[in-house]
Every structure is written in structure tokens, then in C-alpha cells.
Design goal:
The chain is mostly helical. The chain has 3 helices and no strands. The protein has one domain (about 25-80).
Length: about 80
């Protein structure tokens, strides 16, 4: 389906939905996602300390994006209207 000028779309985040990012800071989902991102960075030969620092920044950035993103229900409404 093509979007018209009145419709907009947004990029997907790394976790399945924005709600995963809006949970408490020490969420087990966020911790597991952070470990995953660090492990992937290390697979690309990133230094452990650099990977931890950079992936924490990435997670924080995705949390900020989630805070300004539309809910899935809102997007479905836009797509179907």
C-alpha cells in the first residue's frame, strides 16, 4: 500500500514494540537486548568497553525514539484510513 501525503510512517525499533522501551529502567527485556547488541558488536571485533558504552548510547537513543513514536494501534488506524 502506498502512503499518501497525509499519511506518515516510522521506522521500526530494535525490539518488537515501543512498549518494551517504556518499561522501567531495569527491565529484563532491555537488559537482554543490551547484552545482545553488545555481543553483536563484539562479533564485529569491537572492544568490550567500547561496545558496552556505545550500545548503552544506542539503547538510550532508541528509548528516546520510542517516547516520540506512535503506538502500533495508531499506525494501523493511519494505514487503514
Amino acid at each position: 500500500m502506498l502512503l499518501t501525503d497525509e499519511q506518515m510512517d516510522q521506522a521500526m525499533l530494535g525490539m518488537p514494540s515501543r512498549e518494551y522501551y517504556l518499561t522501567e529502567t531495569d527491565s529484563e527485556y532491555k537488559a537482554a537486548y543490551l547484552r545482545y547488541m553488545i555481543n553483536v558488536a563484539k562479533l564485529f571485533d569491537a572492544d568490550q568497553a567500547v561496545a558496552v558504552h556505545d550500545m548503552r548510547e544506542v539503547l538510550h537513543f532508541e528509548e528516546e525514539l520510542a517516547n516520540v513514536s506512535c503506538t502500533l494501534m495508531h499506525l494501523c488506524h493511519l494505514w487503514l484510513s
